[in-house]
UniProtKB/TrEMBL annotation:
GO molecular function, one term: ABC-type amino acid transporter activity
Family (UniProt): Belongs to the ABC transporter superfamily. Drug exporter-2 (TC 3.A.1.117) family.
Location in the cell: Cell inner membrane
Protein name in UniProt: Glutamine ABC transporter ATP-binding protein
Domain of life: Bacteria
Record's keyword annotation contains Nucleotidyltransferase: no
Organism: Pantoea latae
Annotated Pfam families: ABC_tran
GO cellular component: plasma membrane
Domain ABC transporter: 25-265
Length: 269
């Protein structure tokens, strides 16, 4: 069973972004294509540090591409992406990914649809590997942090378990805990519950709702419209490489402005 959500007064604000809320992330004129296929056509996007953007849209509309670009895994051909007013990524016709500031990349964590835990490592080892080996954080500190995060997500008993001994929902919660080890200021979630059995979806969504309560900035791609409506501060509908419509979840879901949004929602709701 999923752990009961923590009552708000018990929550220590671990993840509050101290930076001026209004200048968190800004995409200007961003365009990206794979060959002739345009997946981001002149994107403009502003995100505040306490925003939870939920990206919805048909398969192939470029949702994952947007997240991979923000993670620095793929380049853009045109435009700029600023993070807390600093240049982070700029468009470059030729380069795979032109990251101006790699220190920003470390402030972003990502979780994918298919859990990417190392199968030969225990839960604890999965969490501390990169912080200790890559980021040179002391092992003692990393272990303390890992324990605290796992306890927070109801996984303290799984510290020494291996991924093969976990349910799908537990694996995704571990993947989220692992992404939080380096204290990111932005979390990206790409359909993290799509591969889960229905009874495990809630436990993972509860973890994300917990992060939302702690004011973690998040960009979430999901096909679960009920969850989207619950967690989003803003919903963005993408289709054919364009941002078709964005707005408050109640607005977008109950009275969408664009025909394409309405047609999409009629299909999925
Ligand atoms: P979504 O996540 O909304 O389903 P994606 O961002 O994964 O969309 O993909 C958008 C389009 O770009 C799709 O048509 C997909 O086939 C194509 N695409 C994605 N990645 C690549 C790639 N590395 N090379 C070529 N085409 C790609
Ligand atoms: Mg996708």
């Amino acid at each position: 069973l999923a752990a009961a959500p923590t009552r708000p007064q018990d929550i220590r604000p671990l993840f509050i972004n101290e930076f001026n809320k209004g200048d968190f992330i800004q995409l200007d004129n961003v365009s990206k294509a794979y060959g002739d296929l345009v997946v981001m056509d002149n994107f403009h996007l502003n995100m505040k540090s306490d925003d939870r953007l939920v990206i919805i849209g048909p398969s192939g509309s470029g949702k994952s591409s947007l997240l991979r670009v923000l993670m620095g895994l793929e380049g853009i051909q045109r435009g700029t992406i600023n993070f807390q007013k600093q240049h982070y990524i700029v468009g470059d016709k030729n380069k795979q990914a032109k990251i101006v500031d790699h220190t920003i990349q470390k402030k972003i964590g990502m979780v994918f649809q298919h859990y990417t835990l190392f199968p030969h490592l225990s839960v604890l080892q999965n969490l501390i590997l990169s912080p200790v080996k890559v980021h040179k954080i002391s092992k003692t500190i990393a272990i303390d942090k890992a324990r605290a995060l796992l306890a927070r997500f109801g996984l303290e008993s799984k510290l020494h378990a291996y991924p093969s001994q976990l349910s799908g929902g537990q694996k995704q919660r571990v993947a989220i805990a692992r992404a939080l080890m380096l204290e990111p200021q932005l979390m990206l979630f790409d359909e993290v519950t799509s591969a889960l059995d229905p009874e495990m979806v809630t436990e993972v969504q509860n973890v994300m709702l917990q992060l939302a309560e702690q004011k973690m900035a998040m960009i979430i791609v999901t096909h679960d419209m009920h969850f989207a409506r619950n967690i989003a501060s803003r919903v963005i509908f993408c289709a054919n490489g364009k941002i078709v419509e964005q707005g408050h979840p109640e607005k977008v879901f109950t009275s969408p402005k664009e025909t394409r949004t309405r047609e999409f929602l009629e299909k999925v709701l």
